[in-house]
Write a structure and sequence with these properties.
The protein is an alpha+beta fold and about 110 residues long. The protein is built from 3 helices and 5 strands, in the order αβββαββα. It is about 30% helix and about 25% strand. The termini are far apart.
Length: about 110
């Protein structure tokens, strides 16, 4: 588990993101576009063993609810071991909250 977390940290850091602990939100990391002292995190990262891992509905609902309430994008990260390379590739699944906006249908019909 710790090896997977380190692989995700390395991958995101190499991509230019700043990371801090995500324990406060029930995640492994919080992800920032720039200096965490000056900016809010845009996402929370949970490291999972595989994208195909079956989560309970309760677990997914809990993570999504926390992310939405904290105004963050939920990012599930899975390190993929490669025989050719010592570096792990990391696959990401992003869950974003989407809330439809009510449209005025009267204006569209007229």
């Amino acid at each position: 588990a710790e090896k997977s977390r380190c692989a995700v940290f390395r991958d995101l850091h190499r991509r230019g993101y700043f990371l801090t602990t995500g324990e406060r939100f029930g995640a492994d990391y919080l992800v920032y576009q720039d200096d965490p002292l000056c900016f809010h995190a845009f996402g929370m990262v949970s490291v999972v063993p595989s994208v195909q891992t079956l989560f309970s509905v309760k677990t997914i609902a809990s993570l999504c609810r926390v992310a939405q309430q904290a105004n963050k994008t939920l990012i599930l990260a899975t390190p993929v071991c490669s025989a050719e390379s010592s570096d792990n590739q990391v696959d990401y699944v992003v869950w974003q909250w989407w809330q439809p906006v009510a449209r005025n249908r009267d204006k569209e019909e007229g």
